[in-house]
Amino acid sequence: MSFVLLHPIGADKAFWDPVVAELAGTPTVALDLPGHGAAPVAAAPGIAAYSAGVIAHLEAAGRPAVVVGMSLGGLVAQHIGAVRPDLV
Fold it and tell me: Which of 37, 42, 44, 79 would disulfide-bridge 32, Cβ 3.0–4.6 Å?
């Protein structure tokens, strides 16, 4: 099992540092959503645009993951579950 962590609006992947530390030894990645941290602004508005990079990450991993999100990250996680349930 692996985890993908998605931060709330106005934060970046560092939001999840304490959780990543607790999950040491478990494959875990916290991602920056578009316009946050090191991620460029999304080319288009909307949750689908915010989800695209996360979907690409999940596809590249080649296996489903537990996707955890708070606030904006939660909306992205729900969207991915709705449109690509095979990835979560």
Answer: 37
Residue closest to 4 by CA, chosen among 88, 86, 79: 88
**Contacts of residue 83, Cβ cutoff 8 Å, sequence gap at least 6:** 48, 51
Beta strands (DSSP E) in 1-88 are: 3-6, 28-31, 66-69
Residue-wise pLDDT tens digits, 54-84: 999 999 999 999 999 999 999 999 999 999 9
Helix axes 47-61, 72-83, angle to 10 degrees: 60
- Per-residue pLDDT tens for 30-52? 999 999 999 999 988 899 999 99
